[in-house]
Structures are given as C-alpha cells and as structure tokens.
Design goal:
This protein is of the alpha/beta class and 286 residues long. Helix content is 42%, strand content 16%. The protein has helices spanning 23-32, 49-59, 90-116, 123-132, 142-151, 158-166, 181-190, 206-214, 229-242, 272-281; strands at 7-9, 37-40, 62-73, 76-83, 194-197, 219-223, 245-248, 255-256, 259-260, 270-271. The strands form 2 sheets. The protein has an 8-stranded mixed sheet. The chain has a two-stranded antiparallel sheet with strand order 8-9. Helix 1 packs parallel to helix 2 (49-59) and helix 5 (142-151) crosses helix 6 (158-166). The longest helix is centred in the middle third of the chain and has 27 residues, at 90-116. It is globular. It starts with 6 loop residues before the first strand and ends in a 5-residue tail after the last helix. The relative contact order is 0.17. The protein binds adenosine monophosphate (AMP), zinc ion (ZN) and fe (iii) ion (2 copies). One fe (iii) ion is lined by residues 68, 79, 198-199. The site of one fe (iii) ion has 4 residues, from loops.
Length: 286
C-alpha cells in the first residue's frame, strides 16, 4: 500500500471510559478495518492506552496515546482531545486524577437527583452495570447511568434516558465546576502533547473555538460523524485561517442498542501524514 493510503482514525473510546470494546479489541478492529493508526481518546483517562499499545505492537497498528478532556465554558461542555502527552508526567497525572474525582462526585449528584425524582437507583447498581461491560469504575459516565436506568425500567432506551433525565437542561442534569477549555489545552501542552478541539459543530461556539486555535490548540476536528457537509466546510476553512491542523475521527464507542454511537471505526480518518504534523506540534509549550 502506498504511504498516502495509510489512514488514521484520531478519535475512539474503549471500556476505559464509555466505549464498548476493550482497548485490545479496539485495536484488532482497527486492523480489520485496514487502519494504519488509531488514537485511543477516552474521557478524562488514559487507562486504556497501555493495553492498546501492546496489541498495536503485535498487529502492526500504530496506537496514538490520547485523551478527551471534558472542559466547560459557561456550563457548556467543550471536549478537548490530547495526543502524545508524556503519561508519566507527575503534574499531568495529578491533574487528570482530579478530573476523575470531580466526575465521580457529579455522578453521585446525578443519582441523588434521580432519587429525588422518585427513581430508586443506586451508584452500586450503576457500578454493576458498568462492570459487566468491563468499564473501569473510576471513569463511569452518563451512558452507564443511562444503561442502569434502562435496566431498572425507568427508561425505555439509553436515548430515552438522555432525553428525559440526563441530557443538558434535563431534570437530573448536573454541570460541575470544571476546567475551562483553555486550561485543558494548557495541561495537554504542558505534558508535552498536542491539543485538538473535538467536534466543534456540537457547540456552535465558533468564536470560542477560534480563540482556542489562536491560543495554543494545534488542531480542529473538522470531520466527525455529527458534522454535516456544511459544518465540515466551515471548520476546514476556520482551521486553515488559524493555521491549525484539520483532523478527523469517528468517535467510535462501539455498538449500542443495535447502532454505532457516534460512528463506525475508520468512518472518519486522516492520512498518517496528518499524524506526523500532530507529532511535530507536540511539546512546544511555552
Ligand atoms: P459524561 O462524560 O459522563 O458527561 O457523558 C457524556 C457522554 O455521553 C458523551 O461523550 C457520549 O458518549 C454520551 N452521550 C451523550 N449524549 C448521548 C445520547 N443522547 N445518547 C447516548 N449517549 C450519549
Ligand atoms: Zn463518550
Ligand atoms: Fe466528545
Ligand atoms: Fe468522544
């Protein structure tokens, strides 16, 4: 295969957060899909990276160590992808651990709100459901709470659980004080990595996205399953205007209730040359 045909999917989740496949299984699927590289970008954790790297070495798939940090701007979640951080960096580890502590407290508050609404759900039930899927306890999220709501009969489906209880603005929605996207970009750069703003089409905050690109983020996720053709054109132009790297990722989470949430692995990808540009943008923190 010519080098230009080698593709990288730069956004995928595993059971280290709310994906359905273990890290090794994700890499095996990447190999089957013909990908040359896949980035493991779990929510607020890099716990899946080592297993993925080992499987990647075995199968000849390049695994890019990554993360997807949930940051907030004015109570709106802004996701920041980080690539190739020094995972052994003590400050980095402390910071990410702090994020997970906040996530756990938020989950408890969500369950308390559900209880106040008359739904008898416990964190223990959520943990059990997540545990069955092989998820690490420390990175439980709303999808696991949604699955528990389905299991106890309080919701018809995960989508229904988000629409009625867990989605932004719903009765059991809890926004916790968190780091800003600017801080997330800073953390990633200070750990020697490169930051990419995830799925900008989901925020409709192009002003903020532009400031992030001019303020240290190396790239913009231009191609994402939740973007339509118009979004993609607009964000490609924005990336170009800011001198940012245009990236692509499927945001693969595995199959849920019969469908891929968000995209199938490899359904969005960049040539591996883009990965080299990201590598060159790493570790340039000032
Ligand atoms: P959290 O990080 O715990 O707040 O959970 C956010 C995650 O929930 C997102 O990254 C998605 O993976 C998932 N999610 C958000 N909205 C929905 C939805 N309507 N249906 C299923 N999963 C969703
Ligand atoms: Zn997710
Ligand atoms: Fe995201
Ligand atoms: Fe994601």
């Amino acid at each position: 295969m010519a080098i230009t045909d080698q593709r990288a999917d730069l956004h995928a989740h595993t059971t280290a957060s709310d994906g359905m496949l273990a890290p090794g299984a994700l890499v095996r699927l990447a190999a089957q899909a013909g990908l040359a590289a896949v980035a493991v970008t779990d929510h607020d954790t890099t716990a899946g990276v080592d297993e993925a790297l080992a499987e990647g070495a075995r199968l000849g798939v390049e695994v890019v160590p990554g993360i997807e940090i949930s940051a907030y701007a004015d109570d709106q979640a802004i996701h920041v992808l980080g690539y190739c951080m020094d995972l052994g960096d003590a400050d980095w580890q402390r910071r990410i651990e702090g994020l997970r502590g906040g996530r756990q407290r938020r989950n408890e508050q969500i369950v308390a709100r559900l209880n106040a609404l008359g739904i008898a759900l416990t964190m223990e039930q959520v943990r059990r459901i997540a545990g069955k899927a092989g998820t690490a306890e420390e990175t439980l999220g709303r999808p696991h709470i949604a699955a528990a709501l389905v299991a106890c009969g309080a919701a018809a489906s995960v989508t229904d659980a988000f629409e009625r209880y867990l989605g932004s603005g719903c009765a059991a929605y809890v926004a916790i004080p968190r780091l800003s996207p600017h801080e997330a970009v800073g953390w990633i750069r200070e750990a020697g990595g490169a930051a990419v703003i995830a799925h900008p089409g989901l925020y409709r905050r192009d002003d903020l996205v532009e400031r992030l690109l001019r303020g240290g983020a190396a790239g913009l996720e231009v191609s994402h399953p939740d973007h339509d053709g118009e979004d993609e054109r607009r964000y490609r132009a924005l990336a170009e205007r800011c001198g940012a790297i245009a990236t692509a990722g499927s945001d693969f989470h595995g199959e849920r209730e019969g469908g891929a949430y968000h995209g199938a692995l490899g359904s969005r990808s960049v040539p591996v040359e883009v990965l080299r540009r990201i590598a060159r943008a790493c570790g340039d923190a000032t």
